[in-house]
Structure formats: structure tokens, C-alpha cells
């Protein structure tokens, strides 16, 4: 644990709280991609297969339960809640998730640290998390109507990964033999996907104008 990882975890947690705040308070999921939320739920399910048979620390266990439970609850709200689901724009959220899931699974089967079920699923979750935001970014570009909470959610989600890169840099220089090529490459790709959104988010914040992405 170091300050960069802690900041990354707290930023990730903040992004989820912002999204839950929007869903619970406004009773709306407008501008939120169900496709992305389903991908994140799959990420956490496949990453935390060891939640009941492998104990690292109380902190890790609590965070795993929070991320897993919140991702599943968000999917439930968007699919089942009689009020929230009415605001879901399924006509615009049409990204085909199989175009992401299948390549990530194939990559995990070929490029992994050890060819065991848990290790392949953990590697798959890394690859999938790197590109899970794509349906959300596509939806925002299509609608171009981004409310403050949605913008903050995506910004915090991207910031969490950027902070984790700083965590890896810190660990590389402070821990002997700390090398995680799969994690590093996936994290770098994920951060690059946010670059365009970061630019327009910061410009809109600086100029105090509504956030809009180019078509």
C-alpha cells in the first residue's frame, strides 16, 4: 500500500458513489451505458474469484465486496428498477459487447502468467477492464448531452487508472523485481482511451461551460 494506490482506490470508489448518487437521488441513468456497467460487473466477477478462499487483508476483502456488490446493483437498477430503467437510452447504447469480451478472453488464454482457471480469469479481467469504458464513450459521443454527474463519474473512473499507473511507477522504484507487464500494458491502454475525454472535460471545467464531446 502507498499513497498512490490509496488515492486510486478512493477515486475509484468515488466514481461509483457518484453514479449511485445519480441513480438513487435523481432516479435516472440517462447518459449511462448499461453495456459498460455489464462489462465492469463481469470484470469484478472474474477478478475476485478468490474472495472466499484467499484472504489478503481486511481492506482488500472489503473493497472487493464493495466493487462487486455495487457493480451488480447498478446493473440491476438499470435493468429492473421500474423508474430508473425508463431513463435508459437503449436505442443509443448499442455497442456490441461480444466484440470486446471474446478478443479479451482469447488474449487471456494465450498471454497469461500461469495457465490455470483463476489466473486466466484474472488476466481476462485486466484486458476487459482496459476497454470496458468504450461503450460509455461511444454513448456520450452519440448523445453529446452530458450532465455533471455523468461527466464526474467518467472523469473519476479515468483518474483512478491514472493514479494506479503512478502506483506502479512508485513500486517499480521501491520494490525489487516488481515487474507486471500484463497489468502495465492493460492499464496504459485504458488510460489512453480516456485521454480525449479528459481534454474536453478539463476545457469545459476551465471555461465553466457545459461538457460536450465532438461528434
UniProtKB/TrEMBL annotation:
<keyword id="KW-0256">Endoplasmic reticulum</keyword>
<feature type="signal peptide">
    <location>
        <begin position="1"/>
        <end position="31"/>
    </location>
</feature>
<comment type="similarity">
    <text>Belongs to the ERD2 family.</text>
</comment>
<feature type="transmembrane region" description="Helical">
    <location>
        <begin position="121"/>
        <end position="140"/>
    </location>
</feature>
<dbReference type="GO" id="GO:0046923">
    <property type="term" value="F:ER retention sequence binding"/>
</dbReference>
<keyword id="KW-0732">Signal</keyword>
<dbReference type="Pfam" id="PF00810">
    <property type="entry name" value="ER_lumen_recept"/>
</dbReference>
<dbReference type="GO" id="GO:0005789">
    <property type="term" value="C:endoplasmic reticulum membrane"/>
</dbReference>
<feature type="transmembrane region" description="Helical">
    <location>
        <begin position="182"/>
        <end position="202"/>
    </location>
</feature>
<dbReference type="GO" id="GO:0016192">
    <property type="term" value="P:vesicle-mediated transport"/>
</dbReference>
<feature type="transmembrane region" description="Helical">
    <location>
        <begin position="152"/>
        <end position="170"/>
    </location>
</feature>
<keyword id="KW-0675">Receptor</keyword>
<keyword id="KW-1133">Transmembrane helix</keyword>
<keyword id="KW-0813">Transport</keyword>
<dbReference type="InterPro" id="IPR000133">
    <property type="entry name" value="ER_ret_rcpt"/>
</dbReference>
<keyword id="KW-0812">Transmembrane</keyword>
<dbReference type="GO" id="GO:0006621">
    <property type="term" value="P:protein retention in ER lumen"/>
</dbReference>
<keyword id="KW-0931">ER-Golgi transport</keyword>
<keyword id="KW-0653">Protein transport</keyword>
<dbReference type="GO" id="GO:0015031">
    <property type="term" value="P:protein transport"/>
</dbReference>
<feature type="transmembrane region" description="Helical">
    <location>
        <begin position="58"/>
        <end position="78"/>
    </location>
</feature>
<feature type="transmembrane region" description="Helical">
    <location>
        <begin position="99"/>
        <end position="115"/>
    </location>
</feature>
<protein>
    <recommendedName>
        <fullName>ER lumen protein-retaining receptor</fullName>
    </recommendedName>
</protein>
<keyword id="KW-0472">Membrane</keyword>
Amino acid at each position: 500500500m502507498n499513497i498512490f494506490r490509496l488515492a486510486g482506490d478512493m477515486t475509484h470508489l468515488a466514481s461509483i458513489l457518484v453514479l449511485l448518487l445519480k441513480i438513487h437521488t435523481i432516479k435516472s441513468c440517462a447518459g449511462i451505458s448499461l453495456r459498460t456497467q455489464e462489462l465492469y460487473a463481469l470484470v469484478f466477477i472474474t477478478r475476485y474469484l478468490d474472495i472466499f478462499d484467499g484472504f489478503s487483508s481486511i481492506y482488500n476483502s472489503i473493497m472487493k465486496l464493495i466493487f462487486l456488490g455495487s457493480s451488480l446493483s447498478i446493473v440491476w437498477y438499470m435493468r429492473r428498477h421500474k423508474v430508473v430503467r425508463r431513463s435508459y437510452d437503449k436505442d443509443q447504447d448499442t455497442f456490441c459487447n461480444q466484440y470486446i469480451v471474446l478478443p479479451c478472453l482469447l488474449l487471456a488464454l494465450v498471454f497469461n502468467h500461469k495457465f490455470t482457471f483463476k489466473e486466466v480469469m484474472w488476466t481476462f479481467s485486466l484486458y476487459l477492464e482496459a476497454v470496458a469504458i468504450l461503450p460509455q464513450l461511444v454513448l456520450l459521443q452519440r448523445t453529446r448531452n452530458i450532465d455533471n454527474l455523468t461527466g464526474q463519474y467518467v472523469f473519476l473512473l479515468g483518474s483512478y487508472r491514472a493514479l494506479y499507473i503512478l502506483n506502479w511507477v512508485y513500486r517499480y522504484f521501491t520494490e525489487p523485481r516488481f515487474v507486471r507487464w500484463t497489468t502495465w500494458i492493460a492499464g496504459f491502454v485504458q488510460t489512453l482511451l480516456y485521454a480525449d475525454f479528459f481534454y474536453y472535460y478539463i476545457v469545459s471545467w476551465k471555461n465553466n461551460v457545459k461538457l460536450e464531446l465532438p461528434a
